[in-house]
Amino acid sequence: METVIQIHQLSKSFKGIETVSDVNMNVKKGEIYGFLGPNGAGKTTIMKMILNLVKPTSGEIKIFNQSISTTSYQYLSKIGSIIEYPEFYGRLTAKENLELHCEYIGVYEKGAVKEALDIVGLNGVENKKIHEFSLGMKQRLGIARAIVTKPEILILDEPINGLDPIGIKDIRELLMLLKEEHGITILISSHIVAEIESIADTIGILHHGKLLKEVRMEDIRKENMEYLEIKIDDLKKTAHVLENKLGIRKYEIVNQHCIRIFEHDISQSQINKELILNDIVVNGIEKQQQHLEEYFLNLINGGNQIA
Ligand SMILES: Nc1ncnc2c1ncn2[C@@H]1O[C@H](COP(=O)(O)OP(=O)(O)OP(=O)(O)O)[C@@H](O)[C@H]1O
After folding, report:
1. Phi/psi class of residue 22: alpha, beta or left (left: φ > 0; alpha: ψ in -120 to 50)?
2. Which of 182, 206, 229, 283 has the largest count of CB atoms under 10 Å?
3. Is the Cβ–Cβ distance between 170 and 138 less than 8 Å?
4. Residue with the nearest Cα to atom 24 of ligand 1?
5. For residues 177 and 247, what is the distance between their CA atoms, to the nearest angstrom?
């Protein structure tokens, strides 16, 4: 699949302090790329560098295979974005705000405003003034403004921040629609893992300016999120059998009576049999699914079970 945003060894320092360190990232055409990291990890700074709002200290950013520089601007017409909180003119209506935006950036296709408002589900309230809008409606309008120029890429910095569960679900559905029906590639940041889990095709995990992991969701689901939980009476003996008799290395000790195995080549019955043969009392053995949240926390806290 074609890579539409390619970042190579990107770094940024502010007053000598490195905020982004040697980041390599690849966003593929048509995917939703979830950019995850705690507050202050450097997500906004990277997004601003992609949009030429901040100049990198070093490294390269390629958009549609073209290297960008401080003087590049044409590629920006292919990108829609919301960086930080979307601001609007409160006394103007939704429609007027979008029309003004089109005029401002010099792109105006007849019907584009209506179409964008339709897509985000604000067609009934286009003549309402923004100061009467809820946060969720403003977020939708922010997305409408970002897509009104029909971009190929959408860059959304924490678009779900502060929304209630219904608002979050609405935005998720909207992003899926933009991806599936309009073929838009979406780079979305969040510090809340659960917001991204169900929609991202790929996630990039950023911590202290470094990209710790870039992985396809389907791969981590299989490799690191499915595990076998076994309840045993003797932890030491079990660990010994797992390592020395079965050659299992990817496991996590939950407590004195519980171990999680993240190895997929050995069957449940094989493990069970070996433990019993070695006189270990097995009180339970069950397949479980880890949430991305745990995977994420393990990774940023330097957990040991993730390869
Ligand atoms: N213009 C600037 N001058 C100095 N420091 C900056 C500047 N912009 C960002 N930083 C610093 O860079 C670090 C990363 O900030 P950034 O906003 O990129 O993080 P983030 O991952 O987007 O977090 P958040 O979710 O809080 O926005 C922070 O410590 C911030 O204070």
Report:
1. left
2. 206
3. no
4. 39
5. 45
How far apart are the CA of 293 and the centre of ligand 1, in A?
Answer: 23
> Rounded to a whole number, what is the largest CA-CA distance in the chain?
77
Give the predicted TM-score (pTM) of the model: 0.81
Whether ligand 1 lies within 6 angstroms of the CB of 209 is answered as no
Tokens 């004195």 found at: 256
Q: What type of residue is 206?
A: L
The closest alpha carbon to 3, from 62, 72, 73, 56, belongs to 62
Q: Please indicate whether residue 55, judged by its CB atom, sits closer than 6 Å to ligand 1.
A: no
> At a CB cut-off of 8 Å and minimum separation 6, what does 150 contact?
109, 112
CB 239 within 8 A of CB 248: no
Q: 17 CB less than 6 Å from ligand 1?
A: no
- Which residue owns the Cα nearest ligand 1 atom 12? 19
Q: Whose CA is nearest to atom 4 of ligand 1?
A: 14
What's the 67 CA to ligand 1 centre distance in angstroms? 24
Residues 188-204, mean pLDDT to the nearest whole number? 89
Residue of minimum CA distance from atom 30 in ligand 1? 40
User: Does ligand 1 come within 6 angstroms of the Cβ of 82?
Assistant: no
Q: Which residue has the tokens 């050659």?
A: 247
DSSP notation for 78-115: GEEEE-SSPP--TTSBHHHHHHHHHHHHT---TTHHHH
ipTM: 0.93
What was the pLDDT predicted at 224?
66
